[in-house]
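Thread: quick sanity check before group meeting

JM: Hey all, I'm pulling together slides for Thursday and realized we never actually wrote out the predicted structure for the chain we discussed last week. Dropping the sequence here so it's in one place. If anyone has concerns about the input, flag it before I start.
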Amino acid sequence: MPVTKPDRRRKVKDMKILLVVPAGEKVRVTRARPKVPRRAMLRFSVLPLTVVAALTPREHEVRMVDENVEPLDFDADCDLVGVTFMTALAPRAYEIAREFRRRGKLAVGGGYHATLCPNDAAPHFDALVVGDAEGLWQRLLEDVHQGKLQKLYRQTGPANATAAAGLLETPVPRRDLLERTARYYATINAVQAGRGCRHACRYCSVTAFHGRTYRRRPVAEVVEELRAMEGDFIFVDDNIIADRTFALELFGAMVPLRKRWVGQASLLIADDPELLRATRAAGCRGLFIGIETANEANLAAMNKQFNQAGSYGARLKRIRRAGIGVIAGMIAGMDSDGPEVFQEMLKFLEQTGMDALQLNILTPLPGTPLHLDMEGAGRVADRDWSHYDYRHVVFSPARISAAELQAGADWVYAEFYRLDRILRRFARAFFTTGWMPALLALKLGWTYRYDIRREGIRGWNPARPRARWSWQGLLWPEQRTRTLNSASKQHL
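JM (edit): ok, ran it. Output follows.
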């Protein structure tokens, strides 16, 4: 079925707009596969599109579909489709755009991949929003109304004095659009107090997107939004303590609200007793912290020396003793990682008492300094964007094979989320950080374990190869997998 190219010059006044969150094939809900996977704890935010909806003038009708929780109807009655996507979801986003354009609908793309790889994304859409949506989305809709839609809408820098002063102007998101499917999320109350990050980690797309800038909303505005919400919430800021003065003011104003929340912060919070106390007093019960690696050489290579691996134990203990659970972000596959890194990582997580784990395979996301380095060195081995999901090896590792990296990362996940370890962490957290962080850790553990079992993730430990024959004269399963993967490595 050929694409029916939408008429970019057609004037449309009151539009029907469909905003779409694409999902990966393994978790996508379709009419043929209508059951929603039981992983609500890993779904908490479609904030970008609820903000886009809030930016949309009220004369337009807006609907939203998240493919993680409901099927997408390509024959939906709409005039314009907006899709936001990360790199791993680019192929699905392009497929969505193609199907709607075949039906004569305008397709608009935005988000991280569209911003960092506009030349890759542009051919698939009628228009791209490059950068933050505020300001650009309204201009795009006005151009559609006037029949003069442009191909590219780009943020070229601070649009006004407010942005130049480090302030963020963004509306309260349209959470009402998620009420119909709210039961499938850990919470639909995602809040952003600030945007961006001032650090320069070489693997990070946030830094690449925002250019090491950080902008914050007025404290009164954030508090007003929180007061109007029912229940607890999550801060989706990449680093809620990026501006210490702002964070202290915000946390102080939040105390009377008596709300509980989780968020993300750098490990530097452990070095600031006043800030740590204020964070807990404001209702924080859990933080995702990018620990990444316990190897100093790896931290230096990724420009994250401020983590100071030698002090991890004491600093993480201070956070947990403050009554805040820690979800550790770890990365496997950095250049100093050898076969032993996986068992060392598991031992580190146990010794430091981490409550939960998000383990990423090092991924050179396009637009980041890491990608430029690896591309220049000829180490990018896989250009299938769907594999850039932090769970596939897409480059040539330095000290281990691609097969060992994949197997080792899978092994750490499966071992960390073993049932006995989940229950032991729950008991430990209950007496260390309190009942709520313990319950959070238990729910996360149960969800990750469900995902691991659903996808059949097992792996093996590359530091302990089982290269021996069984009495039947067959290789053990782990070694057989390793042998097959090593042979296929030649194609990576």
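AS: nice. The two ends are 34 Å apart (CA to CA). The chain has two domains: 16-163, 189-455.
JM: adding both to the slides.
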